Amino acid sequence: MTPDDVIEQAIEALQVAARTGKIGDGKIFVTPIEQVIRIRTGETGPDAL
Fold this sequence. Notes:
The chain is an all-alpha fold. The chain has 1 helix and no strands. The termini are close together.
């Protein structure tokens, strides 16, 4: 989960680090996450990360 204000920077960093120019470099999917829950502790939201 990445805060909205750094999404573009995160995408750029991923592209720079992962790009080889060859087939199989992968894809980046940007999707909203509505909730995150740490199963072990029951923590939710940013505390679960």
